[in-house]
Amino acid sequence: MANHWRGLAKGRDTISGKIRGTIFGAIGIIAAFIFVWVWQFQPQGFQAQTQAPVTQIDFQNLLSQPLSDALSETGLSSIYLCVSQVHGPEQFSAAVGLRDPSASQPADAQDALRLASVTKTFTAALILRLKEESLLNLDQKAITHLGPEVWNGLLVLEGVDYGSEITIFQLLNHTSGLGDHFSDGDEDQDGFPDMLTLLRTNPEAFWTPQMVLDYARTHTPPSGIPGSGFHYSDTGYVLLGLIIEKVTGLALEKAYREWLLVPCGLQHTWMEFREKPRAEMAHTFFEQNDLTEMTSISSDWAGGGLVATSNDLASFLKQLISGQVFKSEDTLRQMLETQAEISPYYGLGVQVLPTPLGTYIGHIGFSGAFMFYWQEQDLVITGSVNQTKFDVTEMVLRLSQPLIAK
Fold first, then answer.
1. What is each CA distance from 1 to 29, 60, 304, 327, 374, in whole angstroms?
2. Annotated domain spans of the chain
């Protein structure tokens, strides 16, 4: 069964089948699990489980040895993990390995982790909060908030520019028709996307959102007309970040802080390169290459620019799932609702994943970060393997296995 889960990861966050581990695609492989999603995720039916909690002693006894074994058997430099009950007080957090192998600094559970695409859940939640305050409408054309100069040239098919037709909803669930500036395009056919090559060869460059969009116009072909299908797009989330700034009148990092981070009590979460660090940060690797000092990763921004501890991630997701982030339960249902024919495993900034162990709701990131609510066990599982070339989803399932309620 584990092979089915690994197959599920051969989609968007795999770059040319080599780099990014995520959950999209491989539809034929996971067809056997569709009934799980259909049964459990009708939008009117979602609710977190309220089963008997697992005790803290169980967490520690069940996970300490598997965590150590996973580190030694995979050769990773570090693994960070936090497991927390949604409707109970117990929480277990741990880190194994080295925060910085070059300095032999041991990993600490309070270290911060680069979230990469896990940031998208925060961005989507902020957009939905703005919707609740009637500051925007998801069905609005996104051009309503950003002028035509932003959209011109981003989505041109057969000489027709469709940028003005994209809605905010389509940006949230990756059905806008935009390409993905991060992973689309491999002109030199070396197996790596052009953007990743550019970031690695110019590591000191600081990227603004406007620079990212300029790059996308000239290097990122569209995937289709708006609403025609699912295509994961970091470009779309850059545009959502600009919409947040326009609507709130705040820089994106300040909008995150005012609308989400402070209300949720996330004291060790920040936007890298735009705010001062709030904790020691674990080093992130591409194979043996340390990416930690690469300023060029500033290009991630609204699609992947946040840094947080595993404890902060767990706190945020618990509050999200239990209805404390939004004013209305309907907003949470809308966030988790998927479109069966177009994007059956993606809601609004969240992945909804049927697996052999049950349904997982959350996101993973290119950095190796993960943040999931495991519905059947009523548990939140967060952390990172801090390695871009690793099957993150396999690790999530591996560390989930000991937690299956007996």
1. 11, 26, 31, 39, 17
2. 2-116+265-285+304-403, 120-261
Give pLDDT tens digits along the chain (406 positions). 333 333 333 334 433 333 333 333 333 333 333 333 333 333 334 555 544 444 444 788 899 999 999 999 999 999 999 999 998 888 999 999 999 999 999 999 999 999 999 999 999 999 999 999 999 999 999 999 999 999 999 999 999 999 999 999 999 999 999 999 998 977 667 767 888 889 989 999 999 999 999 999 999 999 999 999 999 999 999 999 999 999 999 999 999 999 999 999 999 999 999 999 999 999 999 989 999 999 999 999 999 999 999 999 999 999 999 999 999 999 999 999 998 888 899 999 999 999 999 999 999 999 999 999 999 999 999 999 999 989 999 999 999 999 986 4
Q: Which of 258, 240, 237 is nearest to 140 (CA)?
A: 240
E strands present in 264-318: 269-271, 285-286, 289-290, 306-309
Same fold, 2-116+265-285+304-403 and 120-261: yes
Question: Contact 194/186 with Cβ under 8 angstroms?
Answer: yes
Q: How far apart are CA 152 and CA 13, in angstroms?
A: 27
Q: To 5 degrees, how large is the angle CA 62–CA 63–CA 68? A: 130
Does the domain formed by 120-261 have CATH 1.20.1280.260? no
Count helices and strands in the chain by DSSP H and E runs: 14, 14
Helix ranges, 182-251 (H): 194-201, 209-219, 234-248
In this structure, which topology does domain 2-116+265-285+304-403 adopt according to CATH?
Beta-lactamase (3.40.710)
Q: What is the pTM of this model?
A: 0.88
Q: Which two tokens stand for residue 251?
A: 């820089």
Q: Which helix (H) or strand (E) holds 134?
A: none
Instruction: State how far the Cα of 127 lies from the Cα of 125, in Å rounded to an integer.
Output: 5
